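Objective 1b: paired records.
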Amino acid sequence: MPVANNADVENYGGFTRFELELEFVQALANPYYLNHLASQKLLQDSCFVEYLSYLQYFAQIEYSRFLSYPGPTLKALELLQQEKFRQDILSPEVVTRLAEETLLASTRAA
């Protein structure tokens, strides 16, 4: 999302689209949030699934450098591309396992 200058950047409530997308994509690292999205049937909405696909630009190095937790964030974004995962994340067992894996990975990295 290269920008010529700040005057060309459209704001949404004082934030750029990139800032809003960055905050949203980082929230996807939270398995409980993914479960919430699934329980609201958003993960069944084809437009929302297309948006998740669009957000894969965060996997590119020029964008992933802005992620606070790139590993879990990008893994969640990758998993969300799979229909089976979008269904499975409704299961409390899947949510718990994913949360434990995320926590374990973060403690190994520290």
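Objective 1b, second protein:
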Amino acid sequence: MPPRINIPPLTRILLVVLVALSILYNAIRYRQWTDNVPFLVIVTNLALFYPWVFLIATLVEQNAVTLLIAGATILYGGKYLERAWGSAEFGKFLLVVSLISNILTWIVYTPLSALFRHRIGSTTINGSVALQAAFLVAFKQLVPEHTVTIARGFIKFRVKHFPAIFLVANTLSGVVFGTDTALALAWLGFLTSWTYLRFYKRQPDLSSASTGASSSVQGDASETFAFAYFWPDVVHGPIAAVSDGIYNALVALRICTPFSAEDVESSNEQAMARGEGGLPSLLNQGGRRGASGKREEAERRRALALRALDQRLHAATANKPPSVAGTASGPSMLGETRYEPDDREAGAGSGS
């Protein structure tokens, strides 16, 4: 029996495209002895003639090391996110992050290339750095308290700290080693993915008893997903002051819709439910554990939904004003159930 490929369809397609485009790019690059392959990567002064590169340049890597990193990112990150969100939402997330990050990076570098052409010439923009930053932001939203252990538990990191570590590493690399395009892609991928997940992506509402479109909410208003919580506690205050000022300005300009108190409360409950659910093993490939992992994930989601429904019913019962009949005759209609035998049953019971 041939082995089953336990990779979701969109993730599988991305891996194939990543390998194919990277091999094609490097074959042309070494044949022509130039990094400028304008129909595969973004070349600042030629990109408008090949507009599709704003989408595909994300899946073009220049060497074997970055190709392996990109492949691992898409394989393990894509597997989890595609199963958590579904192929359609995962594809929309990839499209938003890739297009916006590449376009903004091109906008940054095009005037620089024009002003300092004698020094830097045209700039080539490509690689999956923006996707790597976006995946870390998505994991920060879904499983912020999950702990990743390295070297047999000697090194431990919380998932919520990964985006900051990634950004600091790319910033230092850009300054020290001159990988400035990766620096720009990392920051723009981070900001684009956070903005999309925070304000625009529709999330399933676990606290809602309804189904369909009304059972989802737009954005994630939870306090733990606020911009300041991506950084160490000591700098929460200054970062929160700046980010809140920008947010208030965007709300005043009607670019962003303000979150209501109900939105924040609902998002906090869902964030707590996701945190308690934990992170399934990403290395669990097929076989008997693969089937059991799917059953455990389904049971976990079912339990979270039932618990949220139970909490909602209790809240509705607690907020309901007492009825007149309940006030006059003692316990309310929803308070308790009693069984009182009639006289015939009582007589039969005493006779026996």
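The chain has 13 helices and six strands. The mean pLDDT is 80.
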